[in-house]
């Protein structure tokens, strides 16, 4: 269900922020997801310590938060799912040299 929802969100609504599982084990009741660098709380702390006013950082964060909002709306309206624990610890960050990528856990 998780992987299917992520694929459908990307395909029909151009939402890229869902984590798609890499694999699973029904016997051990485990799901394997990609590794991420940190959660949003730690990332915000790192940005604050840099005291940067770089406009590209602001633009990247704005795009990420806009996509996050679109993902939450998609879950609520299309899938009938309410994520009741949205917080920095549940938003995963993958650092890339050209952009920031936020993912919902």
TrEMBL record:
Q: Which organism is it from?
A: Corallococcus aberystwythensis
Question: What protein name applies here?
Answer: Non-specific serine/threonine protein kinase
A GO molecular function term, named singly, is: protein kinase activity
Q: Which domain of life is it from?
A: Bacteria
């Amino acid at each position: 269900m998780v992987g299917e929802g992520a694929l459908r969100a990307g395909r029909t609504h151009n939402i890229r922020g869902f984590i798609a599982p890499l694999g699973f084990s029904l016997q051990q009741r485990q799901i394997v997801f990609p590794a991420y660098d940190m959660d949003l709380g730690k990332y915000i702390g790192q940005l604050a310590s840099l005291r940067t006013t770089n406009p590209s950082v602001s633009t990247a964060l704005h795009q990420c938060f806009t996509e996050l909002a679109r993902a939450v709306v998609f879950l609520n309206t299309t899938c009938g799912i309410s994520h009741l624990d949205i917080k920095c610890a549940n938003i995963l960050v993958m650092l890339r040299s050209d952009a920031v990528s936020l993912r919902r856990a």
